[in-house]
Amino acid sequence: MSREDAERVIGEFDGDGDGTLGFGDFVRMVDGGDGKEFDGDLRRAFEMFEEDKGEGCITPRGLQRMLVRLGDRKSLDECTAMIRPFDLDGDGVLDFPEFQRMMN
Predict the structure, then answer these.
(1) How far is 10 from 37, CA to CA, in rounded Å?
(2) DSSP letter (8 states) at residue 16
(3) Residue 6 and residue 69 in contact, taking contact as beta carbons nearer than 8 Å
(4) Is the per-residue pLDDT at 78 higher than 80?
(5) Which of 47, 65, 80, 99 could share a disulfide with 60, CB 3.0–4.6 Å?
(6) Dihedral of CA 17/19/43/83: which sign?
(7) Residue 100 to residue 7: CA distance in whole angstroms
(8) Which of 7-16, 41-50, 70-79 is most confident?
(9) Best CA proximity match to 50, nearest among 37, 38, 61
(10) Is the alpha carbon torsion for 56, 34, 69, 86 positive or negative?
(11) pLDDT tens digits along 12-26
C-alpha cells in the first residue's frame, strides 16, 4: 500500500482528527460490514502492515514501521511481543489467517 493510500485510509477513520489511527479507529475500520466487505477491509488493513507489498505476512519490523506512521513508536522487541500471542505456527510473523483470528 502506498503512503498516499495509507494516509487516505487513516483520514477516513481518524475519529478525533489528530492524523493518527488509534485503536478504536482501527477497530471501527475493520468492524462491521457484510462479510465480503469486512474481508476486503480486513485484507486492506493487513496489507498496510506488510513490510513488503505482497509478502503475505506481518513482520515485527513491518508492524513497527506502520505503528510509527500511526504515531505510536514501539521498539522491535515490543512489536515482536505484540505478534507472539497470535503467531499460531511459531514462525515469528502473522499471516492473514492469524491476523483474522487476532481481529476477531
Answers:
(1) 18
(2) T
(3) yes
(4) yes
(5) 80
(6) negative
(7) 22
(8) 70-79
(9) 61
(10) negative
(11) 878 788 887 777 777
